[in-house]
Amino acid sequence: MFQYFDKIVKGTEREDSLVIIQNMKELIGTSFSFLNYYKEIPVSYDAKLVNVDNEMAEFEVHEYQAKVITLEHKALIRSHEKFSFREDMFGEAFYVNVARKKVILCNFGYAKIRSDMRRFVRVVLDRPLEAEMIVAEDILKGGIKDISLGGASIDVMSKEQLPTGLDINMFLKLPDIANGSIHEVGVAATVIKVTGDEAPYNCFVEFYPEKHSQQQISYYINQRQVEIIKELKEQTL
């Protein structure tokens, strides 16, 4: 699972959880903003705090939020203006009932939400899409795992020709989800880093698209977003 936040410990983990619970006790009946991610798409709805007991907090949530909490086993919660602290929070899922739109969270902690720093919407792909990277006079093939207007992560079988900072030209094979046709999109990119101890390695690249390429990538991402949201809506847990 992607890590969307960094845990912040101010006292001990238990002390932090107790402080958060104590603040929540004063705000029963209040709505909080929840945040989860489903295949990199943010899922964020208001959740009403209905009860606090035994260091656990019960919330009424949106159906989609409950579905994603079931999958992620946790939720991020935005700080409330009436709290004695400004940090955002996370809570672990103790109980989730999607049909009743009910969630009970426990083991709270402070969080710095890293995904807030993203400039672009990112989408995860169910099946890797083909990418070709032009390196010197060679063509390296890879499989795109997730993509945004700003870049992508790509599975590659070799990393020797992909040092950090290398400028490359790429061709992305993006499908038109509506009709199944494939569009080959050329884009300039820079290798940010390559991770992994053995193949397939994970190559992160940053895009510098021309206007037409940017439009084509954006069109695909929008289609994929609709597909992911439809999948979440229809998912039964």
UniProtKB/TrEMBL annotation:
Pfam families: PilZ. Gene3D superfamilies: predicted glycosyltransferase like domains (2.40.10.220). One of its GO terms (molecular function) is cyclic-di-GMP binding. InterPro entries: PilZ_domain. Residues 118-221 form the PilZ domain. This is PilZ domain-containing protein. It comes from Oryzomonas rubra. The lineage of its organism: Bacteria, Pseudomonadati, Thermodesulfobacteriota, Desulfuromonadia, Geobacterales.
